[in-house]
What we know:
The complex is a heterodimer.
Chain A: E1 2-7, H1 10-20, H2 30-35, H3 45-54, E2 62-69, E3 78-86, E4 89-96, E5 101-110
Antiparallel strand pairs in A: 1-3, 2-5, 3-4, 4-5
Chain B: E1 9-12, H1 15-24, H2 38-51, E2 63-72, E3 81-94, E4 97-108, E5 111-122
Antiparallel strand pairs in B: 1-3, 2-5, 3-4, 4-5
Amino acid sequence: MRELVVEFSREQIAAYAAASGDGNPIHLDDEFARSVGLPGVIAHGMLQMGLLARVAGEPGRLRKLSCRFVGIVRPGDTVTFRGEEANHALQLTAVNQDGQAVLSRAVAELDRAR
Amino acid sequence: MTGRVYPPVEFRIEPAHVEAFARALGADPADGVPPTYAAVYALGTTARQLFEDPVAAVDFARLLHREQEFEWQRQPEVGETVTAQGRVTSDVERRGIRFIAFESSVTVGGSPLCRSRAVFVIGGAP
């Protein structure tokens, strides 16, 4: 089993916004985020998925990765990403400090040839 | 909007950009292109066309990414130029919430590299 524990920060979310090109202000501007009904800035789903991919093993073997974004992640939240391999597939989970899943139906498939 | 296809977009996988992306994920840039860099070369390149399409009229500020799937034939390498093409596979509204399913196909030199399937929700509860 692979595990990665990440405490999300504004700096990491901003770095991901810059590097990914997803500069939606819901990730960067608290006031804006609140104006659209969020509690403040939230992490990108794709940042969560990027961290999830890190517990999915060797990148070169990854053939499929999927998930649903079911919980918001805010700066200061700690998310534990876990991956467990069975039959060339990985069951993945991402759970926050309150025990709530932030990702669901998270699955990876690996190349069988290697 | 269902069935709407956008023109293909070319995108070069630049070393400096990949490095910044890997660092933002806390990954080691020496490990190659992070798999979810597909968010940039597959999804970012094509979803931008959807978001900027006046006919699609996507309320970007209220848009949430609800589901994502990537499927790879192989992982790309730094320096490669990919071609990405996006299309709307479904666009429905239920109880005031709009659901858009958006699929992107990525090829290199005509050979398939990656397929992205995203679901965006507009106007739903966070």
